[in-house]
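Format is chain and fold; as here:
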Amino acid sequence: AMGGGEGALGVGADGFFAAPSPGVAPCQRWSQKCGLAGEQAAAGAFDSAMRLLTRQLGIVDFSPLQEHMVNLACASHASLPGMPQCPGFVTAMERGWTAETPSPVAHEKPILIFSLPALEDSLKAAYKCMTEGKFPDAQKTFTTILTRIPLIVVDSRREVDEVKELVTICREYLVGLACEMKRKDTPKEDLKAQLELAAFFANCQMQPIHGSLAIRNAMVLFFKAKQFNMAAAFCRRLLELNPSPKVAQQARQVLQACERTPGDALEIDFDPRNPFDIDVINFKPIYRGGKYSECPYTGARFSPDCEGQVCPIGGMTKIGVDASGLVCSPTQIR
């Protein structure tokens, strides 16, 4: 019995101890078996994660992702204290462990720090900044969400659709914020640019409370500039959103004044009857049927002469390159 026990411990008949063969490191196992960019980053396989993101989303500038990728790699390990004056024991952290699935073979996926609920909380914080008029803070928060989404992992197709919807929401707000912040930097003497940028901001698809703020601002600016026809159009859009009684009363008063003296004093590049996208490099509309170059990640559209530039929405992707699309769930690669 004693001999059998020693043999099991690797001790031969001659008393020589044979050390067991080392197993595969968890990081190596993760990088071999996990196919998502976030999991590759958590495994420390940054080159592999970057190749995936370039192929899927056209990302060429990884500086906005650097901190997120390093945080993923650090959070996938824990350090346990050892004996005094000895280094700690670093152990890998894998997700999905339950009493029903105790086998390590069933896991082999690193723990992750970015999740859909956390991104939704960040979206609420961005909305709050918008409501309070803190546009630079809102812009920063929306951009942070966009830079974390490529590294997120979700479990179901429904969650994949929610992630893609989140990308669209961030794009619309960041396009609108780019226009509004550009307008604030534009001299008031450049009335044409002031009006166009205000109209572009009001055209973005935002939450009703934020859309009403942008439309009300455009209504006031256009009325003061004697653009009565367009001011009236903004009045009607504002009333359709059922604003507060005070705002609704102001909109009706402006609408009545515009209807008494119809006409526009200035010709601007804005046609509310023709659907368009906004090029936030040149700050020009791209009307339906016009030529454009697209961001492969967010779908933001730009004039063809912008192809090859880094997209200002997120600051990571190259405009106009071919990419396969966002992959953030194992259900997309089975």
Summary: The chain has twelve helices and six strands. Residues 1-7 have pLDDT under 50 and may be disordered. The two ends are 49 Å apart (CA to CA).
